[in-house]
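chain below, 98 aa
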Amino acid sequence: MYPNVDIKQFTQSAKSLQKLLKDATAISTKVANDPVFAKQLMEKAQQSKQEDVQKQLQSIGIESEMNISFNPNTIHITLSPKKGESPCCQLTFFLYWR
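prediction:
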């Protein structure tokens, strides 16, 4: 026999994920449609300027917490709910440049 399900946390996680998806869409849209922004972001990442990359992405209006890393081929971005909000979900994506 399975226990009764309580969907409260599950639905809250889904609602929070929608915010993360909104921020991920903002990032991908900016990179896709602004070649100057994309070039600057890549250059900063290739120079290992972590703080500058973070600031440039936040300049888009990202509200989520961001954890960013990069290597010669990709930038890895993990978005999480803002500090003080329930740590209910994360969204990780990679953008390749090689």
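The chain has a mean pLDDT of 94. Residues 8-33 form the longest helix (26 residues).
thats it, cya
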